[in-house]
């Protein structure tokens, strides 16, 4: 039986009430919530490549909300609650698996900061536990907790409700749901600049001609900088390669997600059987979706120390995404100095897990032309006011 | 029995291998796949999802089905049977697509090698051999890497006999001559896995023989190549039809390869099916090797006359405009017959088929140039209808292709092309010219494919089907068990991008990276969507080209070598004293020195009491020490530190704090002015490298006009802090001629002198509030001077203490530690260091300090915290809240940064950051850790000797 098309191939119309730039997870979710919650269905999502082919196709699928600061806890926990109902909401299997996420502590400094974060999470109503090495071993039998390790496991934070979800299914689920509500998803349509009338944005220029728009929401990750450059607005973003890899299919060895910031490796095993691992970012800036092999070597050295049995598996495929990192490792969401133009960028390594929350909050912000309460702390102005939300510690990937 | 050896195993090469527990006769050194075929083992593995039997399909890295596990050393959890070399005692088993990682088994060791060359040639077929030879003769240092155990490449297989003989006659002396080129390094069993930016190349060398001696079985080469020539050959592609996955269905070139290279015939009765001349030549070769050719089908209405004539001479006819529509399975599902029917140019049957009983179906849909490596660093390809293949179009900078990888299939033409490309690469590499221009490459003919004379064009054929074809049995990706029906489903779901179809069907995601499925999938999609091959394109190739064992990726950087620990010169002494260590940055530092029966708490009380009441000693060698020198050193430091350093007089020390551009505390420490142009800045132990890089960044990128030189001298020195009221007595024994009095050697000054004849720099600083002499000696003398200090202090009960004691003692004085009291969100003003922030001069972070939020009155500020229960030590990391928490969320006002039991105070105390804390001394707040909430009183952060009366002794 042939399935129904998930989304239709459309030609761009001359004008829309709202245009979302970028059909990644955030762009698709934004369009979906604009249509579902705000009755704005005359919406186009413009994508220069193929739908969800950027960071949405390149992340390691981890979903969690155990961030330190109140603003982050609010936003990521909002997302996690949406994740928990998303399969029903989108009527699609997302392989959403709340298998728990551990963040390992390897030094006394790590322990202090981890305990601090666990306590902050609990007071914010987010499930969080502190595990000693023996408890870590119970959850992850293959982990090496020997005190002789170069950076021994001294404990871990644990968020049981966290986990993973299949990123393709999530993107396709949002795409199908948005399409059903009348949203136009247009692939192969690159936005190259803006139409404006004074400080008001009235549309976009694209590789397929001009498109008028009542409102424009940018969900283009690191390329948001490039687009806003055309308006003379400089964003405090740095784009870096972030690499990930998979092994060949392996019989089940690990049924939770384990991350380590200090030695820079995070791992989970997806339903298909591959071990999926990620590392720290490559230090240099760029938009090339490839990193250096040295970063992968470093990551595997750490992986083999923590999980000796991995020595028998193989690096099958590696790739790079481009993470857009802001000075405080927190996103930028909200209005811009240009009327009718909204940004959602700077998610760094945290974008995937926020997908439903980012889309939900941005849609509300666009629809009402004021920041959603959860987005208020994330305005661009914070870089001039100094009210930063520094999540370098909780980002789990060193920036 | 079906497969057999047409050439007996030579005497001396006999080996016995075990497969699934069955003993098989092998020829040592042949691929396991050859052994299996020779012994009639047709089913080698099973499908990952369908459980259908699968046999050997290919000859090398393209093998999609024949995955095995090797249980004899060197063990492998997953390997292609085509790439496992047999030896006596080899023991292997079938896999169903999943590896089982053997817990507790030692993995074969990996190692790393680094090399540079002017020209790297990848692949040692005719093009590669010619390129490497030409490059070497042009004076280049050359590395020639080939995947196989010997050079020779693919020419032994697919071409006709006359060409093949000529090619071998050309090639053999040249292979021998490779070894005579002094600057040519031949790496066999070495597969280039990835091309990275700037000529970085990673290659995996297999050394199975090293297992016996415990040597490295894998070597991961890191090659920096001036220019790279890809002579990587091609991958043969199959044709999709119902039952194309049965054991016995093979790639035609592979069947010929086993016959020619290994003397093994994969079957006795063969049907050969293709759509190009090389498939017909394969039929000739199989017949030559002793197989009965049951039928030959060519999808083209007019196949090439030469191979047709050659077959005719052997009494073999060719069914033109015909193709295999399906196979029939015999016992165990293995191939027993193939149905051949007349077909149109799209592969649709136009008439009734006829079934030919056979035990080998040799299929060839054409050859795809192996250009994945070029794609790793940005190369593109373009469909060539004349070649029925994607040919390289744009190549990345410094990369050229030759031979079959460039679409040149004739061996003689390939070697000519290789020679030209190799020579050009050498000339360019030696001239250090850039070859970023694709046009330039085309100009010298290097990338232009060469078509042989008298060539009859191949046909692009992806599928063969008739009205009854079950598309769920027509496999596109044999490893992923993905079928024609799956592609149709993906397109039905609205997928039009090949990337989406790949993700929907999982085609191309197996360990063979879709070598045999990628281009057919593109062809099928193009047909279904009525698009061109270029419009559909292919999915991006991602490294590595072949799977790399993780043990090879990690190399030797395991255990201690993961991150070699830094140890102070006194480390062994600490070990001998039973110190407990902690990791601080890369350093191993003693945390405390427990005596018999002591836990950390007890040891800490004893150590700190000694430092307060008599004398203690701290190994402070790990403290970062960075020399900042040059005409503008003072100006530079004025801009880096929040306070002034140009005004510091030589001979004096000053505490300083430096900020990030955000105005947050980056690091702190004492800087010493040694002369007008020299400062030594100390940093937090774990932060020395960060600070050095920070200084370099500003010096090099922002203020290049400043004359300043930065050198990390941390490990040039051993540093011993002699701390406590009796420290002067101890120092007097060590440096009897020095004036150590408070007046003669003032606080915050230093002195270059000698201690026991050893040059020493002594600082009068204090991180505990006690009288302190910080003795710095060249690192070589560290252990000796440390022991001398301990001996001199013996009468006073000198007590070594570690980081835990150091932290406790400074916390009693309200001194911050970067990383405890700061976390990148804390300004100097927040932690009470406003006095060290200049109002007048400019410095990094100053502007940020006056932003509205940073200047807010109600920021979190450093406070002291006294638990109401003086025996209770609150947890570091506990959150501070105003009320005992009820329902969540609870508003958090700060957190506990440091917490100890103080011997001096006789009770517990803590430091913390608290919203508007400086205004709230005397308030009660709660420290919440997990399920406990402990009442604490907010106090001034200085608990001990507020007057500072003890620092001069």
Task: Write a structural description.
The complex is a heterodimer of chains A (399) and B (953). With 399 residues, chain A is an alpha/beta fold. Chain A has 2 domains: 15-59 and 167-237 and 327-395, FAD/NAD(P)-binding domain; 96-163 and 238-323, D-Amino Acid Oxidase, subunit A, domain 2 (D-Amino Acid Oxidase, Chain A, domain 2, 2-Layer Sandwich), CATH 3.30.9. Chain A has helices at 25-38, 70-84, 86-90, 108-123, 133-139, 167-180, 223-229, 293-306, 355-368, 382-385, and strands spanning 15-21, 43-46, 62-63, 101-105, 129-131, 155-159, 163-164, 184-186, 191-197, 200-206, 209-218, 238-249, 257-260, 265-269, 274-281, 314-325, 332-335, 341-345. In chain A, the strands form 3 sheets. In chain A, strands 1, 2, 8, 9, 10, 11, 17 and 18 form an 8-stranded mixed β-sheet that branches. In chain A, strand 14 (265-269) and strand 15 (274-281) form a beta hairpin. In chain A, helix 1 runs parallel beside helix 6, helix 1 (25-38) packs across helix 9 (355-368) and helix 2 crosses helix 9 (355-368). The longest helix of chain A has 16 residues, at 108-123. The termini of chain A are far apart. In chain A, 66% of the residues are buried. The mean pLDDT of chain A is 95. With 953 residues, chain B is α+β, with helices and mostly antiparallel strands. Among the domains of chain B are: 1-72 and 74-107, Ubiquitin-like (UB roll) (Roll), CATH 3.10.20; 108-235 and 365-435, FAD/NAD(P)-binding domain (3-Layer(bba) Sandwich); 624-715, Aminomethyltransferase beta-barrel domains (Alpha-Beta Plaits), CATH 3.30.70.1400. Helix content of chain B is 23%, strand content 28%. Chain B is built from 22 helices and 50 strands. In chain B, the strands form 13 sheets. In chain B, strands 9, 10, 11, 12, 13, 14 and 28 form a 7-stranded mixed β-sheet that branches. Chain B has a 6-stranded mixed β-sheet with strand order 41-42-43-40-34-44. In chain B, a hairpin with a 2-residue loop joins strand 32 (580-584) and strand 33. Chain B is elongated and about 115 Å long. Mean pLDDT of chain B is 94; it is low at 433-447. Classes of the chains: A alpha/beta (399), B alpha+beta (953). Chains A and B meet through helix 4, strand 12, helix 8, strand 16 and helix 10 of A and helix 10, helix 11, strand 31, helix 14 and strand 32 of B. Strand 16 of chain A pairs antiparallel with strand 31 of chain B.
